[in-house]
Amino acid sequence: MKINILNILVIMLVTGLTSFLAHMGMAVFHDGIRPVIPEYLSGRLKRTEMSSIAFGLSVGFIASVGIGNALATNLLNPWLLFLATDIIGVVSPNKWISIILGALWGLLSLTGIGSINIVLTGAPIDLIGGMASVGEYVVTGFSIFPILAIIMQFGVRNGIISSVIVLLLRILGPKFSTISADAWTMLVGVLLLLGLAITKDLKEKKHKNNESNIFSERILKIRKNIIFLMLSGSLIALASYLRIFAGSDVSMFDLSRAYAMTNPIASKALIRTVATNEFFRGLSFIPLIATTAVTTGVYGVAGFTFVYVLGYLAPNAIVALIGGAIIIWLEIMLLNSIGKFLGKFPSLRDSSDNIRSSMNLSIEFALLIGSVIASTKMAASTTLGAAGGFIIIGIIYLINDISGKKIMRMAIGPIAAILTGIILNLLYFVGMIGLV
After folding, report:
1. Are 22 and 16 in contact, with CB atoms under 8 Å apart?
2. What pLDDT is stored for residue 60 in this prediction?
3. What is the pLDDT of residues 371-403, one digit of tens each?
4. What CA–CA distance (Å, rounded) separates 138 from 86?
């Protein structure tokens, strides 16, 4: 991650603006905060109460997923930047202070993570190089989330049948197309999930052609803020283009690998794969984001997150800037239609919680496996051996789990791998282990 004037300026603009959006109640990142914003804006919830809610919901994610994944990938992420600006925006007494404090947080995040990574890169036991393995199976792990969502919503029988179909097309699909096996896995799984949801509603006659939109007032509120929201999408797409920001745990680890590659063809191919997975992730989150937006009048700072995809693939900064704004404009213009569609098929709307849970579960599993691999690789370069790395990360993980998961499972794998690398280096410096 390069630290230069342009990158610093862009990140400060991003965090300053997102803090302002949170302060004004226009948009936030945390889905759990969005439903509470109207209560705060109406005066039924005091600023101190709103601040406590925002801090309580976000601080754990910032400290673990945000900082931990930023150190593991050397890329900034939404949990580090936008959860913090949610809090800063709500806490700030006026809009100007929210902008200033938000911008300072962006500066601190960029320079702090970059400086820590420079120190870790110079360690005798290559911690940063070893951490590249953490995300080795994230894309593959993420691709199975639709199967988990099907099991959660439609039962084990449908889940098993779907698994067989997905596995067959994962094997056969790449033989007659250029689409990767992981992309086939996720595409088929998502289509099966959508098919089951729509079929269920049609059978139960829940499908209604109701043209009335009780959320029109909320959507109108979002449209009034469209200029600020478009600017946010524009700047986030630019940050993604500049290779200093990754939009999700689906993309950050593979983007980190792609940006480190010396072969430009292989790097571009991996980035395209990452963008495809990020796109499917965005599609899967539409029910959740759209439903909370049309019921609260508060949008997401990155919209449906398709601005991330544009940023990864944009050929230049101008396309990222203009394209990011256009994507947010299109999303907001389509909100009314999306809300009506979700109203016709309640099973699609209800699937959002299952989708979110299944995504988290599949990525947690993939990150844990990758973190164990990273720890054993780092330890294999020492006289302690690979098994020693497994012991260290195993102890850290199990202590956290038994003590009540002080660090959430999404972050414990990467954080435990980082701690394993630090412990190995400390053991080397005190002379207890050597290099092989």
Report:
1. no
2. 66
3. 999 999 999 999 999 999 999 999 999 999 898
4. 27
Contact 228, 17 (CB under 8 A): yes
Asked whether 85 and 10 are in contact (CB, 8 A), the reply is: no
Give the rounded distance of the alpha carbon of 325 from its chain centre.
Answer: 20
The predicted structure's pLDDT at residue 206 = 53
pLDDT digits (tens, 9 = 90+) for 100-121: 999 999 999 999 988 887 777 7
**Distance (Å, whole) CA 113 – CA 115:** 6
| Amino acid residing at 57 | L
The count of other CB atoms within 10 Å of the CB of residue 369 is: 18
pLDDT band at 85; cut points 50, 70, 90: very high
The one-letter amino acid code at 240 reads S
Written as one letter, the residue type at 245 is F
Question: What are φ and ψ of residue 155, in 5° steps?
Answer: 95, 165
Instruction: Output the pLDDT for position 178.
Output: 67
| Torsion angles phi and psi, residue 300, rounded to 5 | -90, 145
Q: What is the pTM of this model?
A: 0.77
